[in-house]
Amino acid sequence: MSPNHTASNWAAGAGPYAPGPGPGPGPRGGKNGLARAAMVLGIIGLSTSIGVIGGLLGVIGLVLGLIALKTTKRTGAGRGMSITGVVTSSVAIVVSVLVAVFFVWYANETQECYQPDSFQQYKQCVHQQLTGN
To answer: Do 70 and 77 form a contact (C-beta atoms < 8 A)?
Structure first.
């Protein structure tokens, strides 16, 4: 045992593996709240992009992500989150637009079927409208 490591020092928590002064992990870089918000909105927008809300969240996430990307050039913090927010928000917008286009197309193709007497009649009408039979 070295003279610096006595039993009383070890009892006080100054053992050979105790953290001490010197180089170690420094403070983390500054946080970028806009990047985090863009990433969260992008992920939520993507997961809800089948509805209209996903596209709206995607637009907000895209704007925040682009602003956060400009901020990261200055500060260097949050670049990955900014890129994640921009990408997921963009995909959420595209999926929402495709879903909306599909619903408009479907409603146009099956508009004669909206007054059925039963669900079975509705299914038959939709099948006839979509297949052309």
So the answer is: no
